[in-house]
Design goal:
Helices cover about 80% and strands about 0% of the residues. It is an all-alpha fold and about 325 residues long.
């Protein structure tokens, strides 16, 4: 079978990315809990950032190597997979509540980040150093604002206008006190070591994925854009998929949507902004179609909140979103 070795190393790269991101998030969360950071804030910041690390490392590696199509294909493909596939599957497992802060800040912030990217990319045909720095500043502002609001927000107020399900069946997530106790038993120096090792795994995983994906794309005559949107994007969004599905199975569906929206903001602002620090990232206007679709589908989350049961993604929404993702992949491969 041609390219069997390359596909094997791509698979190994995905495994390294998932394991590296998972262990880094776990260690960072332990440290955050020890210092009293609330669970919701950890989900919006550390978990969202951690699950975006595969995209970040792959994009920086691609950008430095001159594969700009892989950068934008990875970003838009991962974001669409997050919105359509991951939220679709998660809401099929259990309807997802759309909290007030999610509707009023996180979803609009995700839409605004895509709009900023489109303006910057189309203005000069690339993301420049100045634009990259501006995107990183906006990302830092989003993270700080999420942390500040999350530290003082009360869950009961944030969820008060989410219409309950009938009949209502909820699985209680593990108690926060248990997580605090487990984190306190962990050794900070050990967690720091785990973070360092995880970063190494992420770097090697990204190299395996990018280098071998380029070889396969060149050999099969497939564009880097298609490879980035499909294979690379699906592989790098595995942490979000696992996080969302596990959260839904455990009844902790708030983490699922918070993780996805936070990851999308990170993907757009951080993952595109970071490679621009090393060299301008050339932009192909063909990606305008994909990013406009991302705007539309992200805004569609707000439409889910308008019908019964209000402020929730239902299983019907999950079916629709999943089918839309399949349709998008088919259209992308035929373009």
């Amino acid at each position: 079978m041609p390219y069997l070795v390359e596909f094997f190393f791509i698979l190994v790269g995905f495994v390294l990315l998932v394991v590296g991101a998972d262990k880094l998030v776990e260690a960072a969360s332990n440290i955050a809990v020890r210092f009293g950071m609330p669970e919701r804030v950890i989900g919006l910041t550390i978990v969202a950032l951690g699950t975006s690390l595969p995209e970040l490392v792959v994009s920086v590696t691609s950008g430095v190597a001159g594969h700009a199509d892989m950068v934008f294909g990875n970003v838009v493909g991962s974001c669409l997979a997050n919105i359509l596939l991951i939220l679709g599957i998660s809401s099929l497992i259990a309807p997802i509540p759309l909290a007030r802060s999610t509707r009023r800040f996180e979803i609009p912030a995700s839409i605004a980040s895509v709009a900023v990217l489109l303006v910057f990319a189309n203005a000069g045909g690339s993301i420049s150093l100045v634009e990259g720095v501006a995107m990183l500043v906006l990302f830092a502002a989003f993270m700080i604002r999420s942390a500040m609001v999350g530290m003082r927000a009360k869950r009961s107020v944030d969820m008060e206008d989410v219409e309950p399900l009938e009949p209502r069946v909820e699985v209680q997530p593990p108690a926060h006190e248990e997580k605090v106790s487990a984190a306190q038993k962990s050794n900070i120096l050990f967690d720091v070591l785990v973070i360092a090792v995880s970063v190494v795994l992420l770097k090697f995983g990204a190299d395996f994925v990018v280098d071998n994906a380029v070889v396969v794309a060149s050999g099969l005559g497939v564009s880097e854009r298609v490879v980035g949107i499909t294979v690379v994007a699906l592989g790098t969004c595995l942490p979000e998929l696992v996080t969302g599905a596990v959260a839904a199975l455990k009844g902790n569906t708030e983490i699922a949507v918070g993780n996805v929206i936070g990851s999308n903001v990170a993907n757009v602002l951080l993952v595109v902004g970071a490679p621009a620090l090393f060299s301008p990232v050339a932009y192909d206007a063909a990606y305008n179609f994909d990013f406009v679709l991302l705007l539309i589908f992200t805004a569609a989350l707000l439409l889910c909140a308008l019908r019964h049961p209000r402020n929730r993604m239902t299983r019907i929404d999950g079916i629709a979103f999943t089918l839309l993702y399949v349709a998008y992949i088919v259209v992308s491969m035929l373009r």
